[in-house]
Amino acid sequence: MMQKEISTKRDSILVVPLALLLLALAVAIWSVIDVQDTYLTWVLEAAPAIVWILFLILTYKNFRFPNWMYAVMCLHIIVLLVGAHYSYAEVPLGEWMKEWFGFSRNNYDKIGHFMQGFTPTMMSVEILRRNTDLKSFGWIGFLSFSVAMMISAVYEIIEWLASLSNPTDTEAFLGTQGYIWDTQSDMFCCLLGSVCALVVTLIVVKRGRA
What is the pTM of this model? Predict the structure, then answer.
């Protein structure tokens, strides 16, 4: 009976990540077909998702995240690939949000930046908890928050460098839509996502120890 329960648990550990991987790959294939902007825009916007998928595959045997974290990662990857397919300023969900909430611009990119804070923070907490001697969630949270904000800052620098190298062809990649505070609001959304991730992971960790 005990062996059967262990086998069932092991199967669920393997099946869930595999199913999520297949879903992410299916969305990636859909994303690259008949892109709405240029393929340069697709490459720039989809590259983080593709690299991320490869990273998770290569590191799976050595470091396995909880299944709920893989689900969040898959959602984030899908957000990136959908944005790459349409370009962020043209994603239908963002257009619907304009109608629902009265926004003056397509704010789908803000979902991406929220996830940009949420997912790296969540992953960093798990990595630091399991691979370091840090015991204080305060320090783990601070370092994880710093990682997320660093990624956000580096991404904004990459966007700036892309705009300097080719202002015309990278306009869709930047996705500012004429909003002068786009960079600041992007990083604020990342900050919100990071804080939310800290709250969620703290709750999960405490429940796990109960």
Answer: 0.84
